[in-house]
Amino acid sequence: MTFYRDRVDAGRALADQLADLAGRPDTSVLGLVRGGVPVAAVVAERLGAPLDVLVVRKLGLPQAPEVAFGALGPGGVRVLNPELADRLDPERIAEVVRREAAELERREQLYRAGRPPLSLDGRTAVIVDDGLATGATARASVAVARRLGAQRVVVAVPVGSPEAYAALATEADQVVCPHRPEQFGAVSRFYEDFREVSDDEVTAALGG
Which DSSP helix (H) or strand (E) runs through 166? Predict the structure, then answer.
């Protein structure tokens, strides 16, 4: 089951679903690094909105890294899920935070390339990724966007699992997801071309 040729094709389809936001001066489109950026670039162009990146690092449980107990965002933003974080040894939390903070800082320096820090004060943040599998990173990004001042948070993905969509819908103001196949598996299944996005491609999309 394939829905899209590549991320550009997915971006076009997603932009059609977001047409009501076109031309609004309070809207920012944020690509999740790295795979969401080529999708977001098309969406931003179609909506006439500024494009930026949202660098979010999921804080995974030491024994199960795919399960997030929180997330880090730019500007020192840290969001913890107390139901999970409260059960962890503070030293283990600190170890994970240190590691992910270093990677976040590396990516921020690389992708921002001297541009000002991301500010979403009073804005509608449209967070774009190339797919929604577990939804952990997208859910973390919603929390980070709110901490950065976003008035409204829209998550837009070309394809997602029904479970992740349902969980995200309780946290974002709006979730736009054209395809939610019951048998999901991996995001790559739904693209003909799902090659890895390089740092250079992200920088180029941002005009660097």
Answer: helix 162-169
Fold for the domain defined by 7-56+119-205: Rossmann fold (3.40.50)
| Distance, CA of 46 to CA of 44 (rounded, Å) | 5
Token pair for residue 170? Answer: 């309780």
pTM (two decimals): 0.88
Span 92-135, pLDDT tens digits: 999 999 999 999 999 988 888 778 888 899 999 999 999 998 88
User: Is the previous residue joined to 180 through a cis bond, with omega within 30 degrees of 0?
Assistant: no
Which CATH code of 3.40.1800, 3.30.1310, 3.10.450, 1.10.3470 fits the domain covering 58-112? Answer: 3.30.1310
pLDDT score at 208: 59
Burial of 189 (0-12, 13-18, 19+ CB in 10 A): middle
